[in-house]
Each structure stands twice: as structure tokens, then as C-alpha cells.
Amino acid sequence: MSIIYTIGLGSMGQGMALSLLRAGHEVYGFDPDNERLAKVTASGGHALTRKTPAADVLVCVVLNATQTQDALFGDDGWAKHLKSGGTIVSCATVAPDFAIQMEAKAQALGLHYLDAPISGGSVRAADGQLSIMASGTPAAFDGADKALMAMADTIHRLGDQAGPGSAMKAVNQLLAGVHIAAMGEALALATSQGLDLARVLDVIRVSAGTSWMFENRAPHVIDADYTPRSMINIWPKDLGIVTQIADTAKLPLPLTQTALDQYRAAADAGLGLEDDAAITKLIASSAGLRLPVDT
Amino acid sequence: MSIIYTIGLGSMGQGMALSLLRAGHEVYGFDPDNERLAKVTASGGHALTRKTPAADVLVCVVLNATQTQDALFGDDGWAKHLKSGGTIVSCATVAPDFAIQMEAKAQALGLHYLDAPISGGSVRAADGQLSIMASGTPAAFDGADKALMAMADTIHRLGDQAGPGSAMKAVNQLLAGVHIAAMGEALALATSQGLDLARVLDVIRVSAGTSWMFENRAPHVIDADYTPRSMINIWPKDLGIVTQIADTAKLPLPLTQTALDQYRAAADAGLGLEDDAAITKLIASSAGLRLPVDT
């Protein structure tokens, strides 16, 4: 049984904290939102405070690079509360260069650092069945091992230092983000041609045009259910990281850039807090098309 | 047993003609390329000539709308050689409006017309296991039934007149074409980050970023094998149809347009006759990245 801090108790971190608790760990959660924290303490976890015992592992599941930097190494950062030789598991989607910087800071404090972006959504987070795209030293993998076992059913071991984990996540986000936007165009085109969208899903599911995202998100459009499982607002951030990495490599990615522009336009149009399937609304509205409505 | 003409004996039509022969039909093939025709006659088929007996069914598997129009209703077109009440099964990817025009011409000759674009690739065509996205009158479906049974394992019945079949195919091609271009950007980005592409395929295959096209085409890049199963040159044509349909509906499709521009650039760069996975070469070369090479 390890002492594990979980920083960030949003849709992913919440389920990860509960998975760690189910595995028997002593979990200390932190989130500025007291309601989120209460769910963890109600399940046997504790609130992380300055008096909490030093941790073996810190799992950081915040939104972005800035929050990661602050949560770990800011003035009130938690890295210095780990045991000597403790391990940081950093899960936010960030640029590989940033992950490398964080690893260096951790190592300067005598800590191990696992570059460990996550994939799978909130349901699998709650079930302890995430995929983790991880890279780090063998010592970082060893230190994180028990926590990873509790949170994930698939651990991709991608390299011996920070960087490749975040690079792999960027590649996945490029594909996922473009595929959702392509779904939006496909459903708008189908609507313009008078096709029934439920039938389109049936056909595409067994055709060469299918994608994981199409099969997962098209039902949201068909059901007119834009309750956010994953928000539009995720994509300007994640595809922004992808294009930033690509810019550094002097690699033009016109398709990714176009998808990024579409998500930014959707956010500007007030769709930012809706499910990312709502990109379809942006496309359909440009031609005055009627999508299914909630009945 | 029916008398069936098969017009166009390329990578798809060839396998379809052989599937029809295996099912016991009397097949008359036509293709300007004598080698292709010889493969069909060597398997028990016949060369289609002006003296051939009148057909029950004509399966038209040519490249595009112009060839379809010429093969069916041109000066030397074959529609007039069908039995009265015979059925045309038209498989080329065309705009729905064009399919509606062809149906009207067929009906004016006392024939039935099935708008029947195909999907599945040449291997499944040879195995009689295509997917067919079909629409047409009940009489057209009845007339085509035995031929469809021999050529396909999945027949999507999408409407009672020509149009929806071709519209559905356009939706599928939008997705498939964008997904291949997205794969190209993803593999180029992965290369720029020093990731091993075979490992990337392993990870993406079980992640939210996967697509049918990614899993099918990424191995071509990893193996540096650009033998054309489906050529780059298909996509300026097929995505051109998609954007043409969308333009008519006043529907902007920025992602599809960007993918179309990429395929045109690839064709201009001399990649037109290579496998469509070669879109990755166009993207990688723009940043001077080295993809796997054939060893």
C-alpha cells in the first residue's frame, strides 16, 4: 500500500483517485472544487494538506502545462512533499519538450518522473481501465508501477526518458481531433443529401470510412445529446499543442490546422462547453441544415 | 442462371466478374485492355460483342460518370443490348444527381437501374464479399438480386430510387479520404518526434485515434510498400465529387477541401499512380523527414 497524492479531480482524475482507493492505496486528493474533493473523501480518501504524510507517488491530472508546472513546482507545488526517491506520474496532454523540462526539475529534487498521458475517457478512468502512453526511466516505471496497475489496463512503454509519451499522445490527439471534425462534415453532407443519420452510422460502421471517433460520437448527434463527455474546448488546446510541436519541427500539417481552426470557430460560436460532437452543428449551420433535435 | 454483362474489368470489376462466374452465371466481359479480358475468358467467361445474347443484368464498374454515361448510353453503349425489363447495376462513384439522370435514361428504355456504389477493395471483390451501398426501385433490386448475391456479402438498401446509394458512397469517401490524409500527418508528426512507426501503429490501433484506414494503410508506410492497392489518383476524383455535391448544397467542407488539395498536390508531385498511403511522403518531404525505406 502506497501513499498517493492525486492532484486534479475532474472527470478523469476523479475516477483515477477512486481506482487507486479500490486498490487499497492511501489516497490524498487535491482540487480547488470542494464538491469534487468531497466525492473522494466520501469513498475513503483524504484531503491533501500541508500536514499530509509524504507521498510515494504523485499523480497529476490537471488541464495543461501551466497547471502541471504550478501543481508540481510552483510556490505551493506538491513535488517537495514527496518522499525522497518518490515518483511523479504526469498525465496532462503537454508538448514533449515541456515533459522533458519537468523530468529535469523532478530529478533535481531527487524524484522520478513518468511522462504518462492518458486516454480512454471518464468511464474507463472510473473503472481503472485507462490506456497510458508512458515514457520515463526504469526507476520511474518501477516507482509508478502500483499506481499504474490500479488506474490502467494498458500501459504503452514508449521510451526511457520523458518525451515519447507526450509525443505519442499528440499523434493520437491529431487523429482523434481530425476524425471528429471529419465526422461533422460527413454527417452534415449526409443531412444535405436527405440521408437518415442512424442509417449512415449503420453503414459507415462496417465500411472503410469508419473510425473509433465516428462510432463513438455520431450517436451523440443522432440523439441530439450534446452533454459534454469531452468538450469542444479540449481541442483548441490539444490540437494547439500538436501544431506547436509540428511548427518546431517545421512540419506543415494543413489538415490538423484546418480542424484546429474549426474547433476555434466552434468555441467562438459559443459551443465550447458542449460535447465535441457539436462541431457538427457549426458545419451544418453554415448551410442552414437541420440536424436531429432532442424530442 | 442469368446472362450478365460486366463492363470494366479493372481491380474491382475483374473480381466481380469472376465472382459472378463462380455463382454459375453466363458472364460477358468488356474492357479495352485485352489482358484483363483474357483473365475473365480464361475462367469461363466470354468477350462481350455486338452478337452476344441479350442480357438480364449489366454490371457497370468503370472509373467515373463520363465512362458510365458512355458505356451505358453512348453511341456504342450497352444498355440497348439488355432484355426488355433488364437491370443495370451501376457501381462507379458518381454524384447522386448523375445517378438520378442515368436512372431516368434507363427507365426510358424500359430498363431498371440500381444506383450501387461498391466498397471493400479488390481482395473482397475477388471473394464476392463486397459491400454495396444501393438504392433503386423494388423492381431494380429484384432484377439485380442474383448478381448482388454473387458479388457482395453486405447490401445496404438505402432508398427506393437512384441517389441515396451515391450519396452514401460520397459520405464514406469523405471520411476515408480525410482519414488517409490524417494518417499521413500523424505518421509524419510521429517521425518528427523520433517515434517508431510500428510502435505507433500498435498504440493507435487500441486508442481513440484509430480508423479503419489508419489500420489498413499505415502498414504500407511502415513497410515502405507503395504498390497501389488504391491509388492517390482516386482521391482528386472522389473528393472532387464530394465537394461538388457539397457546393451544390452550399455546404462548406473545409477539412475535405484541404484533403482534396493535398491529394492534388501529391498527384502533381508525381505520386498519382502510387498507393494512396504515399500521401505520407508528400507531408514528410515538406519537412525533410525520412520515412521507412524499402530494404
TrEMBL record, chains A, B:
Residues 163-282 form the 3-hydroxyisobutyrate dehydrogenase-like NAD-binding domain. Keywords: Carbohydrate metabolism, NAD, NADP, Oxidoreductase. Pfam families: NAD_binding_11 (PF14833), NAD_binding_2 (PF03446). Residues 6-156 form the 6-phosphogluconate dehydrogenase NADP-binding domain. Its EC number is 1.1.1.411. It comes from the Bacteria. It catalyses: L-threonate + NAD(+) = 2-dehydro-L-erythronate + NADH + H(+). It is an enzyme of class 1 (oxidoreductase). InterPro entries: 6-PGluconate_DH-like_C_sf (IPR008927), 6PGD_dom2 (IPR013328), 6PGDH_NADP-bd (IPR006115), HIBADH-like_NADP-bd (IPR029154), HIBADH-related (IPR015815), LtnD (IPR050006), NAD(P)-bd_dom_sf (IPR036291). The keyword DNA-binding does not apply. Catalyzes oxidation of L-threonate to 2-oxo-tetronate. Can use either NAD(+) or NADP(+) as cosubstrate, with a preference for NAD(+). Belongs to the HIBADH-related family. L-threonate dehydrogenase subfamily. PANTHER family: 3-HYDROXYISOBUTYRATE DEHYDROGENASE-LIKE 1, MITOCHONDRIAL-RELATED, L-THREONATE DEHYDROGENASE. This is L-threonate dehydrogenase. It comes from Parasulfitobacter algicola. The lineage of its organism: Bacteria, Pseudomonadati, Pseudomonadota, Alphaproteobacteria, Rhodobacterales.
